[in-house]
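Deviation from plan, reported transparently: flavin-adenine dinucleotide complex.
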Amino acid sequence: MSPKSIRIIGAGLSGLALGQCLRRVNIRTVIYERVKANPTRNNYGITLYKSTYKPLLDTLRMTEDDFCRQVGVHNPDSGALVSDDQRLRVNRAALTSLLESNLDIRFGHKLNNITSYGTSRCVTFQNGTQDLTEDFSILIGADGVHSATRSQLNLSKPVFDLEVLPYIVFNGKRRMVYSNLPPGLLDCFTTPNGIQHVQNGVLLSIKADFWNPDKQTVAVSYTLSRAADKADQALLDRNISDAETLAKSFVDEVATLGQLPAPFDSIFNTDTMSEDRLLHWLMRSSLIDGKVVQDTALNHGVILLGDAAHAQPIPGNGANLAIADALEAAKHMDASGKFDAAAFLEARSDWMNGKRENERALKALHPDGARKARI
Ligand SMILES: Cc1cc2nc3c(=O)[nH]c(=O)nc-3n(C[C@H](O)[C@H](O)[C@H](O)COP(=O)(O)OP(=O)(O)OC[C@H]3O[C@@H](n4cnc5c(N)ncnc54)[C@H](O)[C@@H]3O)c2cc1C
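Because the crystal trials were delayed, the predicted structure below was used instead.
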C-alpha cells in the first residue's frame, strides 16, 4: 500500500462514492467499514435526484440506462422505473454493491480511536488492528450520523450539534408475495414519493423498496409521523438502543387512527404489523461549522463528509448530499495529502440551505395541533 493512499472510515454512500471518484484519478483508498460484508444490508428504497447520480455515471463508466437497470426500483406491473422528471427511486443495497466494486474495503473494522503525533497517525479498530501512517495522510470521516471520527475530534456545541426535531416518526418494512398484494398498493410504485394519507393530522406514507421478479416479491417501507407534543418527551429523549423496543408504541398509535382507506388499511394494520421490522426513528438534524471543516482538514488531515458533517432527518436529502459531497471532495484532494477545504466548502455551501429547507418541508408535512385533534 502506498503510504499516501487515502483512508476512509465508513463504506456508506459518501465513502464509497469518494472511493470510486479517487480510483478514476489513480488515487488509492483503503475503506474501513464497521459491519461485515453483507449484500442485503440496507435493502430499502431511497430517492436520488438525477442531478445527483448523473455526475457519477462518468466515474462508474456507465450509461444512464445501465445504471437505472442495475439499481432502479421497477414497477412490477408495467416494468417502468419508479421515477419522475427529476428523481429516481433506487434500491440502496443494489447501489451499495455497485459502488463497492473494485474498491479496497476492510469490513469488520470499527473505528475506536485516533491518535496523532506530529504528522504520524494511528487509527485503532475494535478488532485490535491498527493503521499507522507516518506522513500527513488524509483521513475521511464518512461514518454517518454517529460518526466515531467526528467524536475523536471532540467537537462540541455550538461547533457541532445533533438536534432532535420535535416530530414522532415510526418506520416499518414489509415484504409481500406479488399474487397477494392488497388492492392499490402498487400505486406506491408509480412515483418516487410513494403514496401518502393524512388522518387526524397524522401522516402515513408508503414507498417502494424493491420488486424481485425472480422471487415474485414486493417490498415497501412505511412511516407514521406527526408533530410531537409534551407527552412525547420520553420518545424524543430515547437512546439509540430503544429504536427497536419502541415498536409497541407504533402499533398503539396505529390502533387509535380508526378506519383507513385502502391500501393504508392493509399496511397500517395492527395484526399484520407485528410480523414486520418496526423502528422508532428520531428526526435528527445537524450542521457542522464550515470553519471547523477547514481547521480539521488543515490541522488534523481529517475531513468529514455526508451525515458525519450534516445529518438531515428522514425523509430528507441525506443520500443526495452525501454523494454530492464525495464528488466535490474528490476534486479538491490529491494523494500527496493536500485538500483544498476552502474550495470544497465554497462549492458545498448549500449545506446550510439544505438543512433549513428540510426543516421547513417537515413542518409543512406535519400540521401543528395534529395530536390534539387525534386525542
Ligand atoms: C430508511 C432510510 C431511507 C432513506 N431515504 C433517503 C432518501 O429517500 N433520500 C435521501 O437523500 N436520503 C435518504 N436517507 C438518508 C441517507 O441514507 C443518508 O443520509 C446517507 O446514507 C448518508 O450517507 P453517509 O455516507 O454520510 O453515511 P452512511 O451511508 O450512513 O454510511 C456510514 C457508514 O459508516 C459505517 N460506520 C459507522 N461507524 C463506523 C465506525 N466507527 N467505524 C467504521 N465504519 C463505521 C456505517 O456502518 C456505514 O456503512 C434514508 C435513510 C434511511 C435509513
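The chain has two domains: 6-49+92-160+286-362, 166-282. We consider this an acceptable substitute for the interim report.
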